[in-house]
TrEMBL record:
SUPFAM superfamilies (UniProt xref): FAS1 domain
Keyword list, A-Z: Cell membrane, Glycoprotein, GPI-anchor, Lipoprotein, Membrane, Signal
Main subcellular localisation: membrane
Pfam family, one: Fasciclin
Keyword Cell membrane (UniProt): yes
Protein name from the UniProt record: FAS1 domain-containing protein
Species assigned in the record: Citrullus colocynthis
Membrane topology value: Lipid-anchor; GPI-anchor
Subcellular location: Cell membrane
Organism ancestry: Eukaryota, Viridiplantae, Streptophyta, Embryophyta, Tracheophyta
Amino acid sequence: MRRPLPLSAAAASQALPLFLLLLFFSAADAHNITRILAKHPEFSTFNHYLTITHLAGEINRRLTITVLALDNSAMSALLDKHFSVGTIKNVLSLHVLVDYYGAKKLHQLSKGTTLSSTLFQATGSATGTSGYVNITNLKGGKVGFGSEDNGGDLNSFYVKSVVEMPYNISILQISKVITSADAEAPTAAPVSLNLTEVLPKQGCKAFSDLLIAAGAIETYQSNVDGGLTMFCPTEDALNAFLPKYKNLTAAHKVSLLLYHGMPIYLSLQMLKSNNGVVNTLATDGGAKYDFVIKTDGEDVTVKTKVVTATVTATLIDSEPLIVYEVDKVLQPKELFKAVPEENDEAPAPKSSPKKKTKAPSPKASDGEVAEDADSPIGSDESDGEPEDQTADKNGAFGSNGQRSIVAMMLSLWFAVLLV
């Protein structure tokens, strides 16, 4: 006959699954490859192609991952081959290992060598075992990498560790692209989507007309193949906003319209799981033109420093293009006066008023001046954004709140065990 568990053991057995569940959901938001690499400009090209090939989203969704990063020079050698975006995706997916390898583990491999599966293998695009990478410790601090379908040729080598978050994500720089005939094989070109034809038919005619009239449609169209997410304001929202829109200079109208697009495909599920600060098609150097994506249950909002818009519908979802309907026109702080947060403290008195400056990019056309109430204002780089600060913390868990919950549950579990 089974003896009943003591109270403390029974409580512990119930607390453990809860703790593991919290740990899973906390770790699921533990890293953002795009934000991490943004702090390392030598990998800017690699970071850009992780975005437009949608590999960044796949990397962020995985709990344990190793990224073999290529610097701008190594990426130039890859781009010189003029592969399609689909082929570049296959090649780069071969550089994402679905296991954790820190610098220490590389130099302490059992038997000195191992085979690691990659995203290229996991997606089913690879044939046979061509999606596996051979990792060999050659001693003397040298570690080689080679595709399994490359005859065992270790054509790339470990350079340095860029970022390690055990055992969540590791980013290691390697010397050159891992060559693979299978990964480099031609891929079918994606079906071309003509925005001027698609948008009006799917409930986005008024916004489409503005894009065409301002000449912003070309920028949107050039980003479709690599992935594009658009936020289309409703016709009522646009009509209410038109008086302000007409007061903008031609250049600022373009910036406002580009502010409604992101150069990446984000499905609704991806949008919900990628909360935080994101760049837009209008982002350019000092002009940040970013906004914050927030999820509350099933509701998704786009929050600028001026307005908060709610995603009300998905008008088009045909990868690489997705278009969401929003109930307000997105207004960037670079062009309109920011609305103080409810918890913002009153600003300290200033000794003398500062002269407003025009947004650094793009420049307004000569002779064009906007009205004071709706005119562009200078981008204040010192403007502290809590969302930025939170999004850039790349600790083992996604946020301080998540870490606190996990720590509390862990302490509670151990306390129960000791009773």
